[in-house]
Each structure stands twice: as C-alpha cells, then as structure tokens.
User: What shape does this take?
Amino acid sequence: MGKTHCSKNNDRVLDLESSDYFFEKEGFEDLSNEKFKGLKNRRKRETGLDDYISAIIAADGSLKI
Assistant: This one.
C-alpha cells in the first residue's frame, strides 16, 4: 500500500512528493511526476532533505501527520 492511497484513506497520513524536494525540476516542468522520477539525469538539490523535513514540520499544524 502506497502513501498516496494511505493519505486518501487516513487524515493522519501526509503525502508529499519527495522528488519535488530532493531534485531540481528546472527544464523538466512539463513532465509528470512519474515521468520525472524515471529520469536518470536528475540533479540533486543540496537543500533537499532540509526542505523536505521543513515541509513535514510545517504540515504538523494541519493535523496531516
């Protein structure tokens, strides 16, 4: 069972698209998230983990964790 399915069926599950935080999407904005995830030449974001954790912390107030 994936996180998207879980988030649709449980208010306590947060569904963040991790590739939005961990990889630069510049030049690939026209691709769907699924196609972007399949690229071999994605560039990692230096602040990816920090940004991802910040989004989780920010969502804490919305009761989505």
User: Anything to note?
Assistant: The chain is about 45% helix and 5% strand.
